[in-house]
Amino acid sequence: MKMKSFTCKVLLLCVASLPILGAAGCTSLLPPELRAGAKILGGSMDTLTGVEIQAAALSFGGVVLTDAQADAIAKFLKDNNLATLDDIQALMDQWEQDPSSIQLPDGFEQLFEDFDTSTIDTGAFEDLLGL
Q: What is the pTM of this model?
């Protein structure tokens, strides 16, 4: 748990300094899980890369994603303009109201057929978001 807390503190520090790092062109120097966290907190999830999604899933949820799964998630976020957590919540609400209104890319569901959601550790991500 200490490692997760440390990671969250480092991430928050990076988010706070992101405008300075970005202006200096240094954001690429951050580890991918910190770039991902900064994008999630900064409202630009639709710009996440597959590598960033893989790193964040492992660091904040203990989940290992394949390259194909991570790339599919990145494409889905971008194609659906899902930039913020509120955008994700709105999509989930829409899904509950009318599942047929959400179009998943071809092959998307097959990528996650064997995905076991019970293995996800949400603690570090909830700590990150202050939940």
A: 0.69
